[in-house]
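Possible regression after last week's pipeline update?

I re-ran a chain I had predicted before the update to compare outputs. Posting the input and the new output here so someone can diff against the archived version. Not blocking, just want to make sure nothing changed silently.
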Amino acid sequence: MVKASSARPKEGYQQKWYEKGIIHSGRKVLSMAVPASYNDITVSQSLRYHVGAVWYERNFFVPGSWGRRRRTWLRFGSVHYKAEVWINGEPAMSHNSGSLPFEMEVGNYVNFGATNRLTVMCDNRQGGYTIPQGNNHEAEGNRTKERYTFEMYNAGIYRSVHLYSTPRIYISDIDVDTEYFSSEQLGVVRYRLFLDGDFYGKSRNRAYYIHVQLQNQESQVVAAQINRHPFRGSLQVHNVRAWWPFLMNPQPGYLYRLQVELHKGAYKGEESIDDEILDIYRLPVGIRSLMWNNDSLLLNGKNLYLRGFGRHEDFETRGRGLDYPMMLRDFNLLKWIGANAYHTTHYPYSEEFMQFADECGIMIIDEYSAVDIDANFLNRHLLENHMSVLEQLIHRDKNHPSVIAWSVANEPYSSSGYGSAKYFQSLMWYIRKIAQGRPLTAAISRPFHDDKKNNLAELLDIVGFNRYNSWYRDTRSLEGITGAVTEEALHWRKETGKPIIIMEYGANAINNYRSLPLVVGSPNYQRQLYSRHFLAFDTLRQKKWFIGEIVWNFADFQTAQTVSRVGGDRNGIFSRNRQPKEMAYVLRRRYYALSRHLDKAMVPRAHEERKMDWMVTFLKNVSTDSSSSLE
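New output (post-update):
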């Protein structure tokens, strides 16, 4: 990898590094891991906070057999932010949205049976019309500075890069929609198949058909069908095992496997066991029904109450790079603490993460990084980019049973004026048409007592709000939390008549920082702050339309250096290396108590052995251990 000069960000283009190779750039060449953020891999201070372009390069081999009867593809899981890709010095593809995948057929660029050179320019600069936004760059000597609209400063090739091949005619995509009828123990899987290739060209008269099978986890076929163009149909599954969230069923996250075989037959309308199989596509499928109304969000006919976290993909050294052990650790901790949901604050998590969520029964409010949308840039250019990234997100995650809502923005400027009404009306109209059977939500942070009308809240199916009472707002004033949270939730309910959820709340806590009386930043301050939120939540839950409480943040994370965040953000319930703080044990008691009360879930044996009086109190009073038990 080579770091371009912040003062001369276009030097790589001007000197045509993509043609001659970065080893001839005259700059120091660094070894760099992929996937990873590049910021903390080395010991370079300038690389850690570099703003501008870096250039990756490597050689790769393509088998000669791929050039004859195969199509060759190159796929990136994520590059932050802007990416341009050259193969053997020729421009191949580009992408402008971090945290989302992109790919292209590259058969015309590669040398089959030979070594090829891949060059990737990664530029982390953002502007007023990008999603997420960044402010104008300011020169500081020979260095460029930039402020982002959310905490993360990392950049690089975050996720896996794949070189793969497909048949000439192949299954390019599948849309899946499911329904669960509990009274009949019946599941319905509707599918639509998309093909790519010379399907309507020279092969027009050939007969193509698909063989569709749905298999259970014992690999038994529970439904099957043969279908032809337009390659859509439905399967019925009797005695079905529905997909349930964690702690709402003894066996959460049950997934079937949909297997689709594309055949080429000799004669239209006839099938033979000798017909050639051109392609096979396999997809995990969770069978469930999702519905919502003005009072509730229901899965398989049961009301949902979400309790969980927002989170950053962040860990020491690799930053936001894909990390399988850490991902598995996070899911194990999530189950240990008794949570059932994530809000993907402030960007889409990896595709591998989404697959884990499906398997574990963890519900997802899926969000792209439209964070702090600036009112000064609410125009067509930004709107088109906003629509584009949400469309890409929905296309990527449409078949995941864990996804229960799309979040269209986080803390945007949505008050009246500045064209926000037209902007959000256009955005919501477009996204609602492609929402794939999920409700639309957002995390609103504008003061609810503002005289200006909120032009986004009224358009949502579920109204989410972020509020850091006694942390960013009225710091130290713990006594006002319960009333303030209750008042704001009631306000949004009155204004919109929609279900309400708190998307972010919380406070920092530094381990081993003790003080009596309470001091901001101590574990006991964090505990008291949460306890007073719990009192509000338990009152609001009785009204049914309050459907969840999402903590910010799951774990501590690194940020750009500021005097207010020395060592990063400490809002986590777990430390950055994924060890529980004191608050984790309090939340564990609360979340399992909620699961026991709302869903009749089994409490972990360790809790039963402790004979905790708080459970009896909770079940009698429909509350959790309050501040009195935490003093």
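Follow-up from reviewer: compared with the archived run. Residues 293-629 form a domain with the TIM Barrel fold (CATH 3.20.20.80). Marking as no regression found.
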